[in-house]
Amino acid sequence: MILPSLTLILMVGCIRFSTATEIKRIEEQDVVLPCQHRFGHLVTKNLDIEWLLQDSDPNQKVVITYSSGSVYENVSAKQRGRISFAADYLMGDASIKISSLQATDSGLYTCKVKNAGEYDLKSAINLVVLVRPSKPMCWTQGKLLQGNDIKLQCRSEKGTEPIFYRWQHILDAEGQQTKFQTRSHIDSRTPEMLLLRNLSHTNAGVYQCSASNEAGQQSCFVNITITYSKDPGIIAGAVIGVMLGLLLIFLIVWCTLYRKAKRKYEEEEQPNEIREDAEAPKAKLNSTQSSVGTGSTQSGSCSVKSIRNGTPYSQQPRTPSTKEDKGPVTYTATEEVNTNKNGPTQAHMRRLGAVPVMIPAQTRAFQTV
Q1: pTM (2 decimals)?
Q2: Band of the pLDDT at 33, cuts 50, 70, 90?
Q3: Cβ atoms within 10 A of the Cβ of 306, count?
Q4: Res 121: pLDDT
Q5: 201, pLDDT greater than 90
Q6: Do 246 and 326 meet the contact criterion of CB atoms below 8 Å apart?
């Protein structure tokens, strides 16, 4: 007899659980859980009303109750101040109201009404509190260089599962509306990630990631600015070109300075050069008359008259020694012998034993008088 009774109770419990009414509300909203009983027309002094909650904890919790003419609302610490009877419970409506729903309010609610030992059990209500997705975070993985592959990531930290993600390329680099390029790829297994292959200017712009569930939707944005990398060959060519240009400028400056220095050196050395074709200075030789006596020869003395710097001066000629009396008279390069108006000829000078000397034209020591 006991075994059939237990079987009947289990069957009734399964039927109640399977036929539980589901109510969905969004976080921060209010909800009314209905409970109509049949003891409203009877004497209510023995009336007892009790609401039970079974959440993740396997044990049921009393959330509100009426007994012995008093209402006890602050039974649950999590719902204190947010739960109350929504109607006249003494007249057959024991519905309750929960304000400012929270995720912890989700669970299976059961209304039990008893009067004078007689029960009126109601079907359980499954309350589901939906939490909107939190504002997602958007970020990129990879370097934003032309030709690279990058990933756009999007994630919401809070929200009732399942959360659905959707990527959109809403604006291009010029701020115009655009569509996804063929190089964009979204994996159904990881919809929060967008893969962009072989970046180019068509991939630049603003991307939007939307995270949504039954409760609502939140979005974030990411701006893709692509850096266009230059070809290494072009960079190397530019560097070599600059170096060659600097080298050319250096050579031009060096050649110019060298030519100036060489010209200056030639101008300074030119007055000191000895010219082979320079004409020897002319001199006028003056000699005193010679008288020849009987059996004896009297030599007259010679005087050299020169003009230096425009001023005439006399210089006594060298007197030959006794050993040289019989030889010809020799004059040095600094002596000028006056013989006639036109001066001695070269043949005459050679006969006299003169030695020809090369004198630079620019620095002649004597001037012809």
Answers
A1: 0.53
A2: very high
A3: 20
A4: 84
A5: no
A6: no
Residue 322 backbone class (left: φ over 0; alpha: ψ -120 to 50; beta: rest)? alpha
SS3 content of the chain, % helix, strand, coil (to 5): 20, 35, 45
Query: What does the longest C-alpha to C-alpha distance in the chain come to?
Result: 205
Place of tokens 């030695």: 355
Place of tokens 């592959």: 149
Residue written as token pair 């050649």: 255
Phi, psi of 102, deg, nearest 5: -125, 165
The CA distance from 313 to 74, in Å, is 147
> What average pLDDT does the segment 198-224 reach?
92
Beta-strand relationship, 21-26 and 125-130: parallel
Instruction: State the burial class of residue 2 (Cβ atoms within 10 Å of its Cβ: 0-12, 13-18, 19+).
Output: exposed
DSSP 116-155: TTEEEE---EEEEEE-PPPPPEEEEES--BTT--EEEEEE
What pairing do the DSSP bridges indicate for beta strands 21-26 and 302-308?
unpaired
Amino acid 139: pLDDT: 94
Tell me the pLDDT band of 313, cut-offs 50, 70 and 90.
very low
| Tokens linked to 9 | 């109770």
Q: Which two tokens stand for residue 13?
A: 């419990």
Beta pairing partners, 184:
196
Please tell me the distance from the alpha carbon of residue 53 to that of residue 63, in angstroms, as a whole number. 7
Residue with the bigger pLDDT between 244 and 117: it is 244
The pair of three-digit structure tokens given for residue 178, joined into one six-digit string: 């655009």
Q: Which two tokens stand for residue 333?
A: 């390069």
**Tokens found for residue 225:** 């600015």
- On whether the CB atoms of residues 26 and 216 are closer than 8 A, the answer is yes
List residues bridging with 205 in a β-sheet: 224
Q: What pLDDT does residue 260 have?
A: 85
The residues, any chain, with a CB within 8 Å of residue 224's CB and separated by 6 or more, are 140, 144, 150, 152, 196, 203, 204, 205, 206, 207
